[in-house]
Amino acid sequence: MLTDWNALLITMLIAPATFALVAAVSRPGWRRVVARTGALVAASGFLTAATLAVQVGRGLPVTAAAGGFGLAVDRLAAVLLLLVFGVSPVVQAFAIRYLAGDRRAAWFTAGASLLTSASAGLVTATTLIGLAISWTVAGVALCLLLSMYWHLPAARDGVRRTATAFVIGDLALWVAVVLATAHWGLLDLRALNTAELDGPLVPLIACLVVIAALSRSAQWPFHRWLPATLAAPTPVSALLHAGVVNAGGILLVRLAPLVSGDVARVLTIAAGAATLTYGAVVMLVKADVKGALANSTMAQMGFMILTCGLGLWAATIFHLVAHGFYKATLFLSSGSAIAQRRRASARPPAQAMSRRRQILTALTASALPALALYVAAQAISLPPGQHTAEQALLIFAWATGAAVTWGWLTRRRGIAAGVAAVTLLFAAAIAYLGLITTVGHFLAPSLPTSTAPAALAWSVAAAVSAVLAGLAVLRRMPDTAIHRAIYARAISTGYIAPSSPTHLTGARS
């Protein structure tokens, strides 16, 4: 029997997909109406997701079935739905003015609506086949969005690279689905934690799933497609970097019992750590805003995949949700950031700090966030828990706090600046740890059991932190032959060569 909650869940998924069809066949003169309606449909989905989150927070999961396609919303799905329907209406509303007068505006609305529906299906599907269908449809929707400006050679190159990586990943996922279904029957994802998953096919299935996740999240060796998509309009980039690349982490979390074996774990950790380092290096030398943001996303996804390999599932979810909203904001405000940078460059340059003062500022910027996090942890009295993410993210939080403190102290000097930095750091540390503790406890009933040894997590975190610290030191080095050689190497490594001769001969009509 179809209850109100069932109907609400089904409508939330079907409405954007239905409107995608309407937008695709709409007349050119209806572009603005179509764009506004698409944003309203997505916004209504956010209200529905918030209502469902309250329902599941009370311990009442919502399930439904639509044509044999099983759906369910638990606490994990509720949080991810808030991300999907939180980003989509904001980006579509931004696109109303950004694409005003563009004859492809309705195309964007159709693609964004289809992507929204597929992403919602990805986080709520209860069967492995349903998850794979949503996964593939989301990839197709993204490729359609990237092809908005197909007449541009760079856009065609980006679509080709993206489609190639996605086809490889999707084939891997569908082979895994066929093998798993043939071996265990129709798998219910809600019962994976208690299912008997054994046999010689398990490592192969796990590696295939990891390959699919790496391809969608632009991880090594599939890392070249993401920087090649910069010709896409800003709203498309926002949807891509805030949502689509997160799908790899979502896939690994939802199929955690399948990918927790040693072989899959090593593959995930190695790819995540390598991509994190690569993306961070290239990001530091990129001169263009979108290029730096693209490689920043790659590095952030490397961190997310790394936490998956370490079995830190709460850290994965907290990071991908925070990164999704944060990166959407950065892309949508990139134009304002460029204008602000131009105004700043017109001002007289600030007085350079002495070498001694630089060292003192760096030590202070490193020590203050560490002290703030330690005191905040003692004040909150963090309880031990299997799914709390604070330990996994403390190093990441410290690095972020150190970078922010460094920027503040280089612009503001004196005792007042130091007191303000200390006050803000303590307040931010308490709010940060309190938030991730609350989120971790809220998600705990819906997250898979972590099997990664604590020693492995800390060893990998320490190694990655050492590499990133070395990069930070290298960036501040004086201009030497070694510094210039590494800088040039990083630039050439991050260069995306054209994949077709149309870049040289011109675009075809």
Automatic annotation (TrEMBL):
A Pfam family the protein falls into: Proton_antipo_N
NADH:quinone oxidoreductase/Mrp antiporter transmembrane domain: residues covered: 125-384
TM stretches of this protein: 6-25, 37-56, 76-99, 106-126, 132-152, 164-187, 236-257, 263-285, 292-314, 359-380, 392-409, 416-443, 455-474
Protein name in UniProt: NADH dehydrogenase
Keyword Cytoplasm: no
Record InterPro entries: ND/Mrp_TM, NU5C-like, Proton_antipo_N
Predominant place of localization: membrane
Cellular compartments annotated: Endomembrane system; Membrane
Domain of life: Bacteria
Lineage, top ranks: Bacteria, Bacillati, Actinomycetota, Actinomycetes, Mycobacteriales
UniProt keyword annotation of Oxidoreductase present: no
Record keywords: Membrane, Transmembrane, Transmembrane helix
Residue ranges annotated for the NADH-Ubiquinone oxidoreductase (complex I) chain 5 N-terminal domain, each copy included: 69-108
Membrane topology: Multi-pass membrane protein
